[in-house]
Amino acid sequence: MKKILLTFFSVVLCLGLSQAQVAVTITGAAGNFSDSSVATSVGSSDLGTCPDGTPVMQLAADMGLPLTVVGAVNVTIDGLTHTWGSDIDLTLNIGASSCDLSSDNGGSSDWTGQSPAFAPGGVTPVGGTGCAACFGNGNTGPFEAEGCALGTAFAGVDMATGVSIGFGDDAGGDTGGWTGWSVTFMVDQAEYDAVVAACPAAGPACVINCPADQTIGLEAGECDEVVFFNPTLGEECGDLGVTTVFGGSFVTAGTPADATDNGDSVTAQTDNGSTANYSWTVPACASGGLAVSFDWTYDNDESPFWDPFTLSGPGGTIASFTGFTGATSAGGTACQAAVEGDVFNANLSSRDGVGTGGMFTLSNLQMVCASQPLIWELAQTSGIESGSYNAPGEYCVVYTASEFMLDGAICDLIATGNTMDCEFCITVEEYSGPVATALACNDGVNVSVDENCEALITADMVLEGGPYACYDNYIVTTSFGSNLITTCGTFTVTVTDPATGNSCWGEVTT
Questions:
Q1: Is 269 within 8 Å of 358 (Cβ atoms)?
Q2: Where are the beta strands (DSSP E) in 408-454?
Q3: Which residue blocks in 40-198 are alpha helix, DSSP H?
Q4: What are the residues facing 397 on neighbouring strands?
Q5: What residues contact residue 73 under an 8 Å CB cut-off, 6+ apart?
Q6: CA-to-CA distance for 368 and 233, rounded, in angstroms?
Q7: What pLDDT digit, counting tens, does each position of 53-63 carry?
Q8: Which pTM does this prediction carry?
Q9: What is the secondary structure of 276-341 as a DSSP string?
Q10: Is 509 in contact with 490 (CB distance < 8 Å)?
């Protein structure tokens, strides 16, 4: 019988918390420093989502509803690595306010995967190599921020418009990066409740257009029946759109050997002081955010210093090759969350005329947009396949729809745990009408052989009149000794009904 089963495991967003403040954690992804520039890493919050899947923080920003920071702010940078500590500038940005966490501290110290923390009351980083409590030199704090008091600096600031950290590197020739970061603080409870109260209601429930149960009766002589079915999801279940064309533009100086945009692939090569900078803008997306991924390669014939290359997006630096030492050939797959209007940049230049210069490629772009924050995908999980032939019997088929969120930070779909099943059954019934008990055979039947010079003689080739039962129920014998004919000629064919013992015969020529 047809049935639709729902299984929900969704986390329910609490609306009636009693405390006056709500804890917020903002996290950011890994990234790399870019020489003589600032890589801005934008964070995402843990404030939850509305029933329709809209992130609460995004809703606050879209509607202009404040989420005011209350009290102290704490910051941790994970896995900070850099070959010259005093090049590092760290800036915390919450809403429209900024704070210099640390600027040009650490001397010549080498950060190797350490995780400095910044908190109210910590040691203010003072720089220099002779201070036992200095930023760097193996010291990870916690530090008080250099440019503000983290206990009070952001009190009253609206964080709804975003939280980010600027990772500055104010000198060339050294490299480094970080594996992630987090910022924690409290926001005003009443304001949070006001944002949640403004959440859109959940949209129409996803529906599977599930086929009805059906019964198929075989006609006289038929032994099985081909069965077709095609469950589908309703429009309210959402879908994914994928953009694979870069659609950007080059800005060049000098005479690049190559600067080509083929739509789905981009290549550039520079030498003799030339530059080739490529950028593309993220298109609009129905759900507001996209997952952008692509492959990149970089090659040079000397060192990165002479043919520097940087690749960046809204989530910060993706790749940076600018030092005197470093890879002369590298590549990888980039993945960043993005929204409409965000820009990705690939910048390549040459500082000399030696060799063939540097080269980069971009390919396999996928900018994936969800039509709504939560989407469903449908897959068959049991039963016969559509288009298959089936003998008499009952066949039940199950399709399962699964709900997902598009996670732009990892460029993948994350299952929410919600599932929905569609089950229907198809019954194939044997022919139940009258059956001729006296058999009549055609005489002088011509049968063509196949590419192997073979022909299989079956009851339906020889019997005429009827009606007959399933032709496979009758016994076919030939004067050749088998009903599989492997030589050409004329053969006597006998068809026998095992239920009555009646038979008839005719001649078949191949």
A1: yes
A2: 412-429, 445-446
A3: 56-63, 189-197
A4: 424
A5: 92, 94, 120, 150, 151, 153, 154, 183, 184, 185
A6: 20
A7: 788 888 888 88
A8: 0.61
A9: EEEEEEPPP-TTSEEEEEEEEEEEESS-TTTS-EEEEETTEEEEEE-SSSS-SEEEEEEEEEEETT
A10: yes
